[in-house]
Specification:
twelve-stranded mixed β-sheet, 37% strand, 3 helices, eleven-stranded mixed β-sheet, mainly beta, 402 residues
């Protein structure tokens, strides 16, 4: 492997794109270890089964780094072409360079740092470190034309930091793929809309909107990932709140075995489930539906906390059970962005019996009205500290009768 010719620091996106375009299907572009390659425009996959990888496939800091440098550039790599089935992005680092170049909103043309998926199948993103995207997301698994994307594998990546954390109580969020609220410059770690995908073994640190946002992506497995909020506040751990592009369907999607750690910053909602957790439109047409959340662990460090652990509102037929809390802290303060009446007191488990019919949950969920929980702001006063709860016979499963 070390005898393979690799691309060095003097290269740029034009050279790499030329190799991909001329090489056609199955082309492998090897980047030399420890080099930094500056990009002024995106690298673009062009054909099936192409690969970009650091020679020798290191998993440490010797992975080659692609550095965004274009004045208006937000995207480093695009793999969304219809011919791009089976392309692979492996063992590299991608620096979005936001601290140096600044933020570009979605309304101004900003895209994710890595735009993958699309009208194709079977892509692999593995052992990639990507951080400081200039716009709304680090890694976007696009749904494709007529939601045709399927079978992405997103594994063993290290993603974040990403975005500016919501530090003030008046800061809320932005509309996905639309204009930002002026005070909000948050970013996701993974934004997944590609169905039947496998997302596992990833560590997302200091994302600021959703660490993993599941846009329906029916039939997907989001398992065994680690989410850490250390120095930047985070809106949601694993989000299931968006209607588009799957009309709110999470059918067959499983969120299991993930660890969500509010280590030393705030996570507003660890597992937000349903459109009413993230908004205030109580129309039945805006409800999300289906999916399973089980075996996840929510934990806090000494100074970190959640606003809410798991919250279900505006979601039909959720199955949520056997999740665990370990030394979890809860806190938050009502902001001027909150609705009236304001959200409930920060706590581990809430569901809205009116807007969450067909649910299967455990008896320790507390019923309450849920609306726009992410309006809660950070505070220094804890409501609950060191909360522990694990599945037991005492926490009986409660199928809803509504």
């Amino acid at each position: 492997m070390n005898s393979v010719t690799c691309i060095g620091a003097s290269a740029n996106e034009q050279i790499i794109n030329s190799l991909l375009s001329m090489g056609g299907a199955g082309t492998v572009v090897y980047l030399c270890p420890s080099v930094t390659i500056s990009l002024r425009n995106p690298i673009q996959f062009t054909a099936a089964n192409q690969t970009i990888v650091t020679r020798g496939q290191p998993t440490d800091s010797t992975r080659a780094t692609l550095l965004v440098t274009g004045a208006t550039q937000t995207n480093a790599i695009t793999g969304s072409c219809a011919a791009c089935s089976g392309v692979q992005l492996r063992n590299i680092q991608v620096n979005g360079n936001r601290p140096a170049l600044g933020f570009i909103s979605g309304s101004a043309g900003g895209s994710a740092l890595l735009e993958m998926g699309g009208t194709n199948q079977g892509q692999i993103i593995d052992n990639v470190k990507a951080y400081e995207p200039r716009s709304w997301s680090t890694l976007h698994g696009i749904e494709g034309t007529s939601n045709s994307c399927s079978g992405m594998t997103i594994t063993n990546n290290q993603l974040g930091p990403a975005g500016q954390g919501p530090s003030g109580t008046q800061q809320t969020r932005f509309s996905k793929r639309a204009s930002y609220v002026p005070t909000g410059q948050w970013a996701d770690g993974i934004s997944l809309a590609c169905q039947k995908s496998y997302v596992s073994g990833n560590t997302i640190t200091d994302a600021t909107d959703g660490a993993i946002v599941v846009f329906g992506a029916p039939g997907s497995s989001i398992v065994g990932n680690t989410i850490i909020s250390a120095t930047r506040n985070l809106m949601g751990g694993v989000n299931a709140v968006d209607i588009n592009p799957w009309a709110g369907s999470f059918a067959g999607t499983v969120v299991s075995g993930n660890t969500i750690n509010s280590k030393s910053a705030m996570i507003k909602v660890g597992l937000p489930i349903g459109s009413m957790v993230w908004g205030s439109n109580n129309s039945t047409s805006q409800r999300t539906s289906n999916g399973t959340w089980t075996g996840n662990t929510l934990t806090s460090g000494a100074t970190g906390y959640f606003g809410y652990g798991i919250a279900i509102g505006g979601h039909n037929s959720a199955s949520v059970y056997e999740n665990t809390f370990v030394n979890a802290n809860f806190a938050g303060v009502v902001s001027g962005s909150c609705t009236n009446p304001p959200p409930p007191t920060p706590a581990p488990l809430y569901f809205d019996p009116t807007t969450s019919p067909g649910r299967v949950i455990e008896s320790d969920f507390a019923p309450t009205s849920i609306c726009y929980l992410i309006c809660m702001g950070p505070t220094t006063t804890m409501t609950t500290t060191g909360y522990n709860s694990s599945p037991s016979a005492a926490n009986a499963i409660m199928p809803s009768t509504s």
